[in-house]
Structure to design on (798 residues):
């Protein structure tokens, strides 16, 4: 997994590329915590993601809840690859394809 | 690119899982062995074939997942063979079973090898696989992929589709182990149409979240013609670390997860254990249990001191607290003892293989039947029972059971029987090995004993006494020393082991009909409920499980019986043993004595004491080496005042009394054998003093 974080005016865009799975779960948690700390709306960019496992999905879910609790938003950008969205839906995260988690 | 490596806690977890896999694989292999031996008897039993296949599948799959690659690849070949049998393309034969048993032995070696405890012989593995190839005609299987392969499914007999509600709650370490639920969903989709819904209710707040842990659980509805067993097979590698329920949805029910009935059925798990039982249990190292029992033992001893102080105290609060602690200690003791109780099944089942292999070797046909395998006894006792039982079975197979030809000539069925049974009898467990072989020729035993100088030629011994000679050191009637038994040391060792467990052995035999050896063992070796009694200044404990009642013995009663040691209890004549005479305790007999009536194997017997003090939680301590041969005493215990009380063995006392009476009636002093049962010191040092000097271990 490689990560880059882009701070726009009111939005913090987290670009996640490659395999987002258990070996990088600790790093992903720290990235998402920093993004939450920024207090901005968080947008996930998964355009270059090749894989997304359950540890990543549960981290996104917790981050989204953290954002909502802080009065902010957490969304998935609409340009995520089809197989990533499909994989999440097949794993029971039905609303993921709508960017809602 | 920033790559995060798996953290070391994850590695530790993986090691832990490896260890758990090894422990469980050992259990699976034991069950597999029984299944194979059962299958040998019932070669057409499809259920047993399925059971063996699933065991092999588990070992292969989990082995591969936890890095036991060689074991997994080896097992894969055997699994393929059983898959062929399962689908009817191959028939079960004794040759296949024998080879499978050899393969199973090799799997055990490989499992220990991977744990760094053995050395796998590659040549042995290759030889087994080659023979398997020849027998089955199957090609050698390749390496096992670590991901979860879809199992070949079997549709239900009607081929009708049903809806199944599947609840899958993974354990927290599912992902750390390398399992991925997405692969399970993929495999389920191969069975039919699947609706999946993730439940995120257990996911904590971001700050508290362990990123490698699995918090998600799933509810699914699967529409398929596959059987419940095929669905369960998808979860076969993760079943031990998850909660799984699979329930058929009645056809009229709605097609939603919410409509699934809440009350879930009790599916038997892969090896017949009930799911609930397993989920509610944890594995604990045996050493921790031993430590717990030791601590409870210490607590019981301290509690006895507390009771003593409370009894002498005027403070009613101290007495009340002492009573309460006594109650709690007693409950704690019973609870912790029950934790160590295990069914004897595993030990018994192990002998199926022994009987199978020995029958081959000796060219005999023997069937092993087992009864009472669920009888529970203390783990320590079970652990030390394996060798004596093994030797007794070997003896039966080698010396007892005749060749099929000889059996037929004697009008017996060609297939011999060895019956292994266990049952509770009071505070003891009786384990009996019965065979329908030729029996023991008591005359031959007698002759041999005379030859060896163990008895004099004119000794008059009962049949039981003659059989007991077999247990003496160096006794063997075998004409030839064989590989199986007959080295002449075995039975002596059996006796030593059983006596070390505070047990005893009885042998019964009828020429031409068979032999029965009974091991009478205490349920536990740690703490028992006893009744504390006093004779003069000496204290004794009688096991409470044996004692029935307490009656008074007056001078008049003794006179009425003309000095005979017989008491009339509600018109029943009960013989009694006067402990004062038995142990040569000095001092005046009290006007009124007490007879403790106990149930012994020799019938009801009374034990005359000065005073019955009361219940006593008795922590058993072994006597020192000097007293080891004193059979009428089964140990000692420390009392609250620091003094020692001997624990009496009522059976032995009664047996000894009968023996002495019978020998003196025949005009012989009780020294017929090299080790008369009454060879205990009459003057036990220290008995006259309140604090005994008996050496305890």
């Amino acid at each position: 997994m490689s990560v880059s974080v882009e701070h726009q005016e009111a939005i913090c865009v987290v670009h996640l590329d490659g395999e987002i799975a258990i070996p990088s779960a600790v790093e992903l948690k720290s990235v998402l915590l920093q993004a939450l700390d920024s207090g901005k709306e968080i947008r996930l960019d998964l355009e270059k993601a090749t894989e997304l496992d359950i540890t990543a999905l549960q981290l996104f879910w917790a981050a989204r809840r953290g954002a909502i609790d802080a009065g902010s938003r957490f969304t998935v950008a609409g340009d995520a690859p089809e197989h990533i969205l499909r994989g999440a839906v097949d794993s029971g995260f039905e609303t993921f394809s709508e960017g809602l988690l | 690119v920033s790559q995060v490596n798996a953290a070391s806690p994850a590695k530790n977890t993986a090691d832990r899982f490896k260890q758990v896999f090894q422990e469980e694989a050992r259990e699976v292999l034991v069950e597999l062995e029984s299944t194979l031996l059962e299958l040998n008897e019932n070669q057409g039993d499809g259920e047993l074939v399925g059971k063996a296949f699933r065991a092999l599948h588990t070992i292969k799959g989990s082995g591969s997942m936890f890095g036991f690659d060689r074991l997994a690849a080896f097992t894969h070949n055997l699994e393929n063979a059983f898959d062929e049998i399962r689908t009817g393309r191959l028939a079960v034969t004794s040759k296949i079973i024998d080879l499978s048993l050899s393969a199973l032995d090799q799997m055990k070696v490989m499992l220990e090898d991977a744990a760094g405890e053995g050395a796998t012989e590659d040549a042995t593995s290759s030889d087994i696989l080659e023979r398997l190839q020849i027998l089955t005609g199957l090609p050698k299987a390749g390496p096992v992929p670590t991901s979860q392969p879809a199992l070949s499914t079997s549709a239900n007999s009607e081929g009708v589709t049903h809806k199944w509600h599947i609840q899958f709650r993974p354990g927290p370490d599912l992902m750390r182990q390398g399992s991925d639920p997405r692969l399970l969903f993929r495999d389920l989709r191969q069975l039919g149409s699947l609706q999946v819904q993730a439940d995120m209710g257990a996911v904590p707040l971001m700050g508290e979240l362990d990123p490698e842990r699995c918090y998600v659980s799933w509810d699914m509805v699967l529409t398929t013609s596959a059987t419940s067993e095929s669905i369960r097979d998808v979860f076969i590698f993760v079943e031990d670390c998850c909660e799984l329920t699979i329930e058929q949805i009645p056809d009229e029910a709605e097609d939603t997860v919410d409509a699934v009935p809440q009350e879930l059925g009790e599916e038997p798990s892969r090896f017949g254990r009930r799911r609930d039982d397993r989920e509610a249990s944890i594995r604990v190292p045996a050493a921790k249990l031993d430590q717990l029992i030791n601590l409870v033992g210490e607590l019981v001893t301290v509690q006895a001191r507390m009771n003593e102080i409370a009894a002498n105290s005027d403070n009613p609060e101290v007495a009340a607290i002492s009573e309460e602690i006594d109650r709690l200690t007693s409950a704690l003791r019973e609870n912790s003892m029950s934790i160590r109780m295990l069914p004897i099944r595993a030990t018994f089942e192990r002998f199926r293989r022994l009987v199978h292999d020995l029958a081959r070797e000796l060219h005999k046909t023997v069937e092993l039947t087992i009864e009472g395998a669920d009888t529970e006894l203390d783990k320590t006792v079970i652990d030390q029972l394996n060798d004596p039982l093994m030797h007794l079975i070997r003896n039966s197979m080698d010396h007892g059971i005749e060749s099929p030809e000889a059996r037929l000539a004697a009008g017996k069925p060609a297939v011999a029987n060895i019956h292994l049974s266990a049952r509770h009898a009071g505070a003891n467990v009786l384990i009996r090995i019965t065979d329908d072989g030729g029996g023991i020729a008591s005359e031959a035993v007698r002759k041999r004993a005379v030859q060896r100088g163990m008895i004099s030629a004119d000794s008059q011994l009962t049949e039981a006494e003659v059989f007991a000679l077999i247990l003496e050191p160096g006794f063997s009637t075998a004409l030839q020393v064989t590989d199986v038994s007959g080295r002449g040391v075995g039975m002596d060792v059996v006796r030593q082991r059983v006596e070390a467990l505070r047990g005893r052995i009885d042998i019964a035999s009828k020429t031409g009909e068979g032999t029965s050896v009974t091991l009478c063992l205490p349920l536990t070796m740690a703490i028992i409920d006893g009744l504390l009694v006093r004779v003069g200044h000496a204290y004794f404990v009688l096991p409470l499980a044996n004692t029935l009642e307490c009656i008074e013995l007056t001078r008049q009663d003794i006179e009425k019986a003309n000095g005979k040691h017989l008491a009339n209890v509600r018109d029943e004549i009960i013989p009694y043993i006067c402990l004062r005479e038995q142990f040569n305790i000095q001092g005046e007999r009290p006007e009124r004595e007490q007879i403790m009536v106990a149930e012994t194997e020799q019938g009801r017997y009374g034990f005359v004491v000065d005073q019955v003090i009361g219940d006593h939680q008795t922590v058993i301590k072994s006597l020192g080496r000097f007293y080891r041969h004193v059979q009428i005493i089964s140990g000692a215990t420390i009392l609250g005042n620091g003094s020692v009380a001997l624990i009496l063995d009522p059976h032995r006392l009664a047996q000894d009394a009968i023996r002495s009476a019978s020998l003196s009636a025949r005009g012989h002093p009780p020294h017929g054998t090299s080790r008369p049962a009454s060879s205990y010191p009459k003057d036990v040092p220290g008995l006259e003093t309140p604090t005994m000097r008996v050496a305890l271990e």
Summary: The first helix of chain A runs from residue 25 to 37. Chain A has a mean pLDDT of 87. The interface with chain B takes residues 1-3, 17-18, 22-29, 32-33, 36, 53-55, 57-59, 61-63, 65-66, 87, 90-94 of chain A (CB under 8 Å). The longest strand of chain A covers residues 11-20.
